[in-house]
């Protein structure tokens, strides 16, 4: 462990997810040192740095990008700023871990192709590092559920604050961009496949203009479907079922897995109804944000190859954009592969 040279990372903004989730998670790995934080409000940056024990605070993002001791940044700002801030940081020589979604649409995300060579850019889908999702993918690959045929997802929260960015379309708010990306990313992950077409329906809040309920059917080909509902004005709930010809895997807390706690997957062979034949699989305690930061740092240090970069993010935005279009036009929409 003493041979590890941690990546010195700066946090771009004092966003709640950074304060409450990501910074505590990053401190669980020796691969990352949270060395600075920036805000457009210098007093807020200083107060957050003091509260979290971060050595350096900056009153602008540009000052953070100009710090020669900072190797990488984490960007948890509103969705409409992700591409511009990623490009600014990358052009200043910083590697970038950027919150999802990569941008406002596929064309916006495609601008990330201008990131200079040698800069690591990764979209922050922490679920791809969580042991429970690695276990689900391993079991699917091993044939534990037979031939996979369906993924079913519900993910919701209840938010009515008009000032929250998740309720502001100009910032990329709404259920689809905020949490609709999760059913898609885990389905791509466990099925080892890309979707072909999508049908969808959207219910919009009359005041906010954002989608408060999005439902979609996504065809992955070879008899494999993803169905999901995501909502921003619903009882909070999340659950994923991965169903095959010989069994079913259920992820109990698929996306907001408690940090530093064990997680549970349930396997059902379907022999008895009412979950009577359920096998409970307990995964050891872990922190998906720490594991995400560790994976990012290992790519920077050349220990592991880059798996999820700009091209993957553009694919994600293409699928999300096709989903919105399918709902708007009321028809199946083919999902084009980005050029």
H/E order of the elements? Answer: EHEHEHEHEHEHEHEEEEEEEHHE
Mean pLDDT across the residues is 97
Task: Determine Rg (CA atoms, Å).
Answer: 20 Å
DSSP strand content: 25-35%
- Output the CATH homologous superfamily of the largest domain: Dihydrodipicolinate Reductase, domain 2
Structural class comes to: alpha/beta
Task: Give the tally of structural domains.
Answer: 2
Shape annotation: globular
**Strand elements, count:** 15
How can the largest sheet be summarized?
Answer: 9 strands, mixed
Ranges with pLDDT <50 over ≥5 residues? none
CATH architecture of the largest domain: 2-Layer Sandwich
> What is the CATH domain class of the largest domain?
Alpha Beta
CATH topology of the largest domain: Dihydrodipicolinate Reductase, domain 2
Family: Belongs to the Gfo/Idh/MocA family.
Keywords: Oxidoreductase
Protein name: Putative dehydrogenase
Organism: Oharaeibacter diazotrophicus
């Amino acid at each position: 462990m003493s041979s590890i040279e941690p990546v010195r990372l700066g946090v771009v903004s004092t966003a709640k997810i950074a304060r409450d989730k990501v910074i505590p998670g990053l401190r669980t790995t020796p691969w990352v040192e949270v060395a600075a934080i920036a805000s457009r409000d210098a007093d807020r940056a200083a107060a957050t740095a003091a509260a979290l024990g971060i050595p350096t605070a900056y009153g602008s993002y540009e000052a953070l990008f100009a710090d020669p001791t900072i190797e990488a940044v984490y960007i948890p700002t509103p969705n409409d700023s992700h591409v511009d801030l990623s490009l600014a940081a990358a052009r200043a020589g910083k590697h970038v871990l950027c919150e999802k979604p990569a941008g406002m649409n596929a064309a916006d995300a495609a601008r990330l192709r201008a990131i200079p060579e040698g800069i690591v850019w990764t979209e922050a889908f922490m679920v791809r590092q969580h042991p429970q999702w690695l276990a689900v993918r391993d079991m699917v690959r091993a044939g534990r559920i037979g031939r996979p045929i369906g993924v079913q997802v519900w993910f919701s929260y209840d938010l009515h604050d008009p000032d929250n960015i998740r309720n502001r379309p100009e910032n990329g708010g709404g259920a689809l961009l905020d949490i609709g990306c999760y059913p898609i990313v885990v389905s791509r992950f466990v099925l080892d496949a890309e979707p072909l077409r999508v049908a969808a329906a959207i219910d919009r809040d009359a005041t906010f203009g954002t989608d408060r309920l999005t439902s979609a059917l996504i065809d992955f080909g070879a008899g494999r479907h993803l169905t999901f509902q995501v909502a921003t004005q619903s009882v909070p709930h999340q659950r994923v079922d991965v169903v095959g010809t010989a069994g079913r895997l259920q992820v109990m807390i698929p996306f907001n897995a408690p940090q530093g706690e064990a997680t549970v997957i349930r396997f059902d062979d379907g022999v008895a109804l009412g979950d009577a034949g359920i096998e409970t699989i307990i995964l050891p305690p872990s922190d998906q944000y720490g594991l995400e930061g560790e994976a990012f740092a290992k790519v920077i240090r050349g220990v592991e190859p880059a798996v999820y970069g700009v091209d993957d993010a553009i694919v994600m935005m293409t699928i999300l954009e096709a989903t919105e279009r399918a709902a708007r036009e009321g028809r199946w929409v083919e999902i084009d592969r980005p050029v």
